[in-house]
Amino acid sequence: MRTTQELLRAAAGAKRALALCGTEQKNRALLAAAASLRAAAGEILAQNAKDLAAARGQIPDTMLDRLALTEERVEGMAAGLEAVAALPDPVGRLLEERSLANGLALQKIAVPMGTVAIIYESRPNVTADAAALAVKSGNACVLRGGKEAFGSNLAVARALRRGLAAAGLPEDAVCLVEDTSRASAAELMTANGLVDLLIPRGGAGLIRACIQQATVPCIQTGTGICHVYVDAAADPAMALDILDNAKTSRPSVCNAAEVCLVHREIAPAFLPRMKARLVDERAAKGLVPVQLRLCSEAAAIIPGEGAGPDDFDTEFLDYILAVKVVGSLEEAMAHIAAHSTGHSEAIVTRNEAAAAAFAAGVDSAAVYINASTRFTDGGEFGLGCEMGISTQKLHARGPMGLAELTSYKYILRGAGQTR
Predict the structure, then answer these.
(1) Which of 183, 208, 255, 285 is 20 to 30 A from 392, comparing alpha carbons?
(2) How far is CA 236 from CA 275, 290, 335, 372, in A?
(3) pLDDT in tens, 248-268
(4) Cα dihedral across residues 235, 237, 241, 244: positive or negative
(5) pTM
(6) Element spanning 60, H or E
């Protein structure tokens, strides 16, 4: 077992070699890693079964869904590697080119970040996704997963490393931290000179700790208090379909809806249909009903638990939905501005002016008109798998794909100029 510092130094060596690899070699490595994942599926699923057995009763059921792997999910990881191999190489892109007054020819070129560290929880698919994006963008990655997924992560990382080695790339382009204590996370956060970019993927506590404690460059990702606003001019059937998908298709992910805002004009007709769809019909089908946390005005229309003071500021990651009646589009946007984490928001409306005002006035990474928030995802955006969803504005915003894992440098060609 190597220490975290030893892994960081190994990754530093690998990043120099990886930065010089051509597109074809990186693509061959990704395809070899995908084949290695498929070959190791039995080992990966066996380790995942052990992780799941140990985690039951220790983490919520919705988090167990994030942790669980199946043959289909392992195949999805392998397919994700292949999809990234098929994407254009972001390294070496000419971002700008011009001649200066002094005769120097200036070029601005995309280059790898270097070593990217990722701290994440519960989701072993992140191991494969992060490795794929890092390798294609010419970066080494140091992965630090949660203890609840350690066996799964280790099996995935070993398979990936075998694939890289088979294609002639350094294994240490993908390193998994084997120390799952808080100390190893703190080491990554403060590894100045060894970590070029830190990306946390997990709950609000993890992200807050990284933002507050990191002395290396850090991207704020993930926490999603996502809103669906049902406008007075909404198609009720469409709104129900969108809200149902946004809340129940996979409630444990950051792009799931946590808050529904309903215009006062449509609330008396819409809210009973919403309760029937999300609560009564789901219960009748043997599905988990959504627990509604209602503002006082909504509670006067349908039965449900009253919303507490924190319910409109909580990422539930569960079958829970906070519901508020608003009097106007402006009130809906003001509520979102006050309570959103800047992830994803949606409006359902047939009014083009309202849609345009919402799109212009809501300051989140992704704004949807008549569509579910669940599309905020690298694969759905055509970026392949993703490193996370950035909810900040500097450097990267929204799903982080290959381009967001590059920086740039200037190359200036002269003919003997001096200053």
Answers:
(1) 183
(2) 13, 19, 22, 14
(3) 999 988 899 999 999 999 999
(4) positive
(5) 0.83
(6) none
